[in-house]
Amino acid sequence: ARPVVAIVGRPNVGKSTIFNRIIGDRLAIVEDKPGITRDRIYGTSEWNGKPFSIIDTGGIEIDGDDMILKSIRAQAELAIEEADVIVFMCDAKAGITQSDEEVGNLLYRSGKPVLLAVNKVDNLARMDHIYEFYNLGFGDPIGVSGSHGTGVGDLLDAITEHL
Ligand code: GDP
Ligand code: MG
C-alpha cells in the first residue's frame, strides 16, 4: 500500500488549500464512520518518483458540542493511527495560538515523524514570521503559501525524505 501523509492543524490555517495543490484533481475514495463526515479528504499524489496517499484531516466534522476541541483530537488521532508522516500546519499571519500548542502536544507524543509547515508566507517579509514556530519543538519550520504555491515543492521534498 502507499505510505500515508496526513495534514493536521487547527481550522483556517490553509490545510485544504495545500491539500488541493498537492493532489491536483486526483481524489480517492471517501469512507464514512457514524457521527463523522469525511468530505473529500483522501487524495493521492507522487513526488520525486514516490507515490503516496494524503489525508486532509480538517475535512472531518464531529456532531455535537465542543466541536473544535473534539475535532482537533479526532484529527490528531486519525493522523497518528493512519499516517506514516504528519504535516503539522500553522499560519504565519496568526502566529502561534493556543490551539496550535494543543495540536502540537498531541502530535508530539505520537512518535510519528512530524513536519512543521507554516502557511500564508505570501511574501518575503512574512518569512520573518516563521522563526517563532521553532518554539513548537518540531525543528525547522517550512514556509509555504497555498495562495501562491511557493514552498510547496520544499514541503514535498521534506515529506518524501520520510517515505
Ligand atoms: P483549513 O481550514 O485549514 O482547511 O483552511 P483553508 O484551506 O480552508 O483556508 C482557510 C482560509 O485561508 C481561506 O480563506 C483561504 O483562502 C486562506 N488561505 C489559504 N492559504 C493561504 C495563503 O497561503 N495565504 C493567504 N493569505 N491565505 C490563505
Ligand atoms: Mg479544510
From TrEMBL:
Sites where the protein binds GTP 1: 9-16, 56-60, 119-122
Signal peptide: none
Domain EngA-type G: 3-163
Subunit structure, interactors included: Associates with the 50S ribosomal subunit.
Family named by the database record: Belongs to the TRAFAC class TrmE-Era-EngA-EngB-Septin-like GTPase superfamily. EngA (Der) GTPase family.
Function: GTPase that plays an essential role in the late steps of ribosome biogenesis.
Protein name in UniProt: GTPase Der
Organism of derivation: Paenibacillus yonginensis
